[in-house]
Specification:
Elements: H1 2-11, H2 27-30, E1 36-37, E2 43-44, E3 49-50, E4 60-62, E5 65-68, H3 71-88, H4 95-116
Parallel strand pairs: 1-3
Antiparallel strand pairs: 2-3, 4-5
Length: about 130
């Protein structure tokens, strides 16, 4: 679900609101995309490439959070403040934007990151039923 959430968030930005969503792993197709999430094997935010599946990937949100980011978490890390500011009709540097940005990560996005990266939801030694 991280790619679906990432696409939804990108469509909330001025930069990508009018972009079409293309689902592909074909390099020739990806080469023509404005932004790529969850495929492509690279994390290059300056080039709008947001994959987390490569070996050695360990990017985290920061701010005291240590869960590895999914593609949705990567998009949120780079565009979340702007999305929130736009939805709240506030400047991006407004303190309320920062508060909501951190709370949204803590109470929603981090769970998506964790599930997508295989972090167990429950501490238990019991086998799954």
């Amino acid at each position: 679900c991280d790619e679906a959430l990432g696409c939804f968030m990108l469509k909330l930005t001025d930069q990508f609101q009018d972009c079409s969503i293309v689902r592909s792993r074909e390099k020739g197709t990806l080469d023509h995309c404005d932004v790529i999430i969850d495929v492509g094997g690279v994390y290059e935010p300056d080039n709008n490439r947001f994959d987390h599946h490569q070996r050695g990937f360990g990017e985290v949100f920061g701010h005291g959070f240590n869960t590895k980011l999914s593609s949705a978490g990567l998009v949120y890390k780079h565009y979340g403040r702007h999305i929130i500011a736009s939805q709240m009709h506030l400047p991006v540097d407004h303190p309320d934007v920062q508060t909501v940005y951190l709370e949204m990560y803590k109470n929603f996005i981090e769970a998506v990151d964790a599930v997508d990266n295989g972090v167990g939801q429950f501490d238990t030694d019991s086998p799954a039923k």
